[in-house]
């Protein structure tokens, strides 16, 4: 099979690799595609702790495709099933992993790309945010996850304020249902705007989805007393400071909404399948850029640089 191998900071090649064989309890997926995750960008940049070359297909974890081989003791998954897979070598034509780490896709979604991990992540963040009808919800950072959350929160009956630095992202947030749009530029001006929009009480829920220090500071400032501050951004590039005086004075509930339990990830993916199949969630407008496997480097760079119109890159297999 063909598989991507990252050989150094910002450098990759496509290699011929042995076709992986499933062990007992495992399945092999002939991949149709794999989403590109922002969490790949730190390894792609080549920090000191990163070791090159990667294993074939390494870093890819948003794959979907068709089951083409099963190991012994696999009962509920069959050859020919179309699935989303939470495997970790999916920048390749095939990947293999535990049968418990795949979610079946229904026939009515046969033509839909389905990067299961981030869709499941959005569902889990939404669940932990405990959004209710009539609440005011601010979403700070409208990338792929933020845009999905705009849609989920709006359809749950919330009044959504979308805050993003990119005009295109704000336009997408409006398309996803956001009622108010604010450019992420001036800290105090944003606070004043949200204060005005909320009658001085700020927001019931604020979801920070950038992974950066300043938007995290801002998110706390616009959360009301006894509100919930939900951290959905990927904060993996070093320590953060928090305004504990503000958090304490307002009595904020602070929720780190990232999941690490595979079973919770998989349940989020199942919820995402149900939501997409029923029409409650429509991620299709967010798949803005598609690349063949041979151009994975361009997909990673686009995810890093976010050119105009960018929301989500998919790598499509032959």
UniProtKB/TrEMBL annotation:
Cofactors named for this entry: Zn(2+)
Keyword tags: Metal-binding, Oxidoreductase, Zinc
Domain of life of the organism encoding this protein: Bacteria
Keyword Metal-binding tagged: yes
Keyword Acyltransferase: no
Pfam family, one: ADH_zinc_N
UniProt domain Enoyl reductase (ER): residue ranges: 10-315
A GO MF label: oxidoreductase activity, acting on the CH-OH group of donors, NAD or NADP as acceptor
Family, as annotated: Belongs to the zinc-containing alcohol dehydrogenase family.
Entry protein name: L-iditol 2-dehydrogenase
């Amino acid at each position: 099979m063909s598989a991507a191998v990252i050989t150094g900071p910002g450098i990759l090649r496509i290699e011929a690799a042995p076709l992986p064989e499933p062990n007992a309890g495992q399945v092999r997926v002939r991949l149709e595609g794999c989403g590109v995750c922002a969490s790949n960008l730190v390894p792609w940049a080549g920090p000191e702790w990163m070791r090159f070359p990667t294993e074939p297909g390494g870093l890819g974890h948003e794959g979907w495709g068709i089951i083409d081989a099963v190991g012994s003791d696999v009962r509920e998954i069959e050859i020919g099933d179309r699935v989303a897979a939470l495997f970790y070598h999916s920048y390749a034509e095939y990947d293999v992993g535990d049968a418990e780490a795949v979610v079946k896709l229904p026939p009515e979604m046969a033509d839909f790309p389905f990067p299961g991990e981030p869709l499941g992540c959005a569902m889990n963040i939404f669940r932990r945010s405990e959004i209710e009808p009539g609440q005011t919800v601010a979403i700070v950072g409208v990338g792929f996850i933020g845009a999905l959350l705009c849609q989920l929160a709006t359809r749950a009956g919330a009044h959504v304020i979308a805050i993003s630095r990119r005009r295109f992202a704000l336009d997408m947030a409006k398309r996803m249902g956001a009622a108010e749009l604010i450019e992420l530029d001036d800290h105090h001006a944003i606070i004043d705007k949200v204060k005005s929009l909320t009658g001085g009480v700020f927001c019931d829920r604020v979801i920070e989805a950038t992974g950066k220090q300043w938007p995290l500071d801002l998110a706390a400032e616009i959360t009301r007393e006894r509100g919930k501050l939900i951290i959905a951004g990927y904060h993996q590039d070093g320590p953060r400071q928090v305004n504990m005086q503000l958090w304490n004075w307002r009595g904020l509930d602070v929720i780190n909404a990232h999941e690490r339990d595979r079973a919770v990830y998989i349940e989020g993916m199942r919820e995402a399948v149900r939501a997409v199949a029923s029409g409650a969630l429509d991620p299709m407008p967010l798949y803005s850029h598609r690349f063949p496997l041979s151009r994975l480097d361009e997909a990673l760079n686009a995810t890093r640089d976010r050119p105009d119109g960018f929301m989500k890159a998919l790598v499509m297999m032959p």
